[in-house]
Every structure is written in C-alpha cells, then in structure tokens.
Amino acid sequence: VETISLARGVPAPECLPAEDLAECARAVVERDGEAVLNYGPAGGYGPLREWVAERHGVAAGRVIITNGSLQGFVFLAGALAPRGPILVEAPTYDRPLRLLDGLGAEVFALRVDEGGLEVDLLEVVLRQGLRPAFLYTIPTFQNPTGRTLDAERRRRLVQLAAHYGLLIVEDDPYGLVRFEGPVMPTLFELAGAEQVVYASSFSKTVAPGLRVGYLVLPEALVADVETAAASTYITPSLLPQATLFEYLRLGCLRPNLDRTCRLLRERRDALLAALAGELPEGRWSRPAGGYFLWLELPGGVLVADVVARASSAGVAFVPGTDFFPPGAGGENALRLAYSFASPRELAEGAVRLGAAVRGGTLRRAA
Ligand SMILES: Cc1ncc(COP(=O)(O)O)c(C=O)c1O
Hints:
Elements: E1 4-5, H1 18-36, H2 46-56, E2 63-66, H3 69-80, E3 86-90, H4 94-102, E4 107-113, E5 116-117, H5 119-127, E6 134-137, H6 151-164, E7 168-171, H7 187-191, E8 196-201, E9 213-216, H8 219-233, H9 238-249, H10 253-278, E10 283-284, E11 292-296, H11 303-313, E12 315-316, E13 318-319, E14 333-337, H12 343-358
Parallel strand pairs: 1-12, 3-4, 3-6, 6-7, 7-8
Antiparallel strand pairs: 2-9, 4-5, 8-9, 10-11, 11-14, 13-14
The site of pyridoxal-5'-phosphate has 13 residues, from helix 3.
C-alpha cells in the first residue's frame, strides 16, 4: 500500500496559487529586473519590508526578511543564546529544539495544556531567579498541538515579561490560517516591539517554496541579525520577495487565505470525524486553525510501539517525543498533520492509525 503521510506540515498542492505567482514573477522581472536580479540589502526587498512594517505598525528598519522564518530563528538564536538559558514550550516545534541543541544552549521546557503555555510555571521559574535569554513560544495554532494560548494567559505572559525584563520570541506562522473563533491579539500587539520579537512567514499563507519569512525586531537586535544575514547569504533571495510583494500589492492575500482556510478546514473536519470513529479511546486537540492536531494515545500505549506498526499499515506521523527535549515527554502522544492529505486519504489514514494503535500490546509508560 502507498503510505499516507500525516507527518509533514506541508500544504496540499491545491493550496498553492501557482498561476497567480507565475504572473507576478514575470511582472516583477520585467518591471524591476535590474534590482531583483542583483545583490541588494541584507534585510530584504525594500517594498516588502515596508509592507510588513506597515502591517505591524513599526519602522521598516525593524523588519528583516529572511529565506523562510526558520532562518530568522537561526540568526536570532545565534545572537541571543550566549546570553543565557532559553525557555521553550513542551511540546514545541522540533526544528528550533534541534537548533538550540546544536548551539549548546541550556533549554528549559514549560508545559503546554489545553489553554496553551502554562504561564503559572513561567512565573514560578522567573520568581525563582531564572533569567533566560528569551522565551520561544508559538501562541496561536501551535506546532505541534494546534492549541492556542487563551486571552487571559496572553495578558499575564506579557505582564510577566515586562516585570522580569523577559524577551519573548513569538513565532506566528499560523495566526492567519484560522477556520473559526475570535481573532486573538498577538503578544507583539499586547506588549510592543521592545519586549517581543515577532516572527512570521508566508509559507502557510501563500507558499513555502517562496522561502519568505520575517522578523520584527527590537531596535537593539537589528544590527546583530542583519550582520548574521549578510555573512550567511549576502542578500536573501530577492526574486521570491518581489514576486510576493507584487502578489500582496494586487490584493491577492485575503482571497487566497479564504480559499486555503476552506481547503484546510475540510481536511481538519475529515480527520476529526475519522478519529472519532476509529480511535474513540484516544484524546486529541480540536484546532481552530493551523496544520496540526495532537493525539494522546489511549491506555498508556507507547508511540514507539505504534510507529513500526503504522509504517507497515501505510500511515506516517511524527512521534510526540520529537517535540520535547530528550527524555522530557511525548512517549504517549503523536502529531498528525491534516494539511497535505486529501479528506479521503485522511479518513483512510485514521483507519490505518486506529488499527496500528489497537494492534499493540498495551503497557504503561515508565
Ligand atoms: C512554528 C513554525 N515556525 C516556523 C516554521 C518555518 O517556517 P518557514 O517555512 O517560514 O521557514 C514552521 C514550519 O513548519 C513552523 O511550524
């Protein structure tokens, strides 16, 4: 059987606005080829920096556009990691965890529950005297859980950050990929640009192959990040940035978001319905947006046991342990991405997953 992948956070092909982007790419090369085909500023294509700056109410000099937002995280973490330990959510996006490990950073993980990051735990460690270089958080439609930090915790988090001088790195690639529910203010909106680095991306709102992400930085960090960008790639890829700017300028973002959110919502609904039928004894998050849901296995079943059976059954997912520092959790959980597979494949994927879960000897995690 062909494997159904619920593993990677990749958009379905029909989410990608290929024709519109082709027209935009041609238009910018014809109109502004001399600039976009040459070296340019390390911080990115000027008009796009201004577009992002206006959207977030800051000066364009505080915006650095990077080749994907993960690259921005690499620059930022490189600049900040020497300043102290780093706080992350548990579970959290696996790539930053590995990057921080590679930098030799000391990482402290704070639990996430149904309401997002447990801000009480943050208060405890700050009160005990921990002074982290920064807190890395994904407050909206988190990768990997799909959960969202609730309004009250957002306010408290921002208050704590101001009180203890904590820098927050808010990673928000999914905020606009909303299917329902009220729009939450970002931490950046609540706290302002001095307390929060805001990171986002056009990977989930337009196309990941563009590799366009950005940071909105406190004044004091701009030079460090810009220097890291210049010494990594001199100039980021300007053609995708200019193509994207043209796409935004023509007003294509909102209709594209409406279309992709509809496609993704159908997929989320298909997966939720199938799980209810196939794994009634499990528990999972019910994301109001984004790409992922988090599934807790029933009765102490270990994800390590399910992986191999799932692979033979023809379904792939990412084990929960990948989203925690080593040994810190995730043994009874897994992440399912509903962004790529079709509704029909999602339903079949849930059948195969249910069989893989039930086929195991049930034993308690240590
Ligand atoms: C939370 C989070 N941050 C950042 C990224 C990376 O995005 P980009 O494609 O802009 O590098 C992802 C991609 O899956 C993500 O889930």
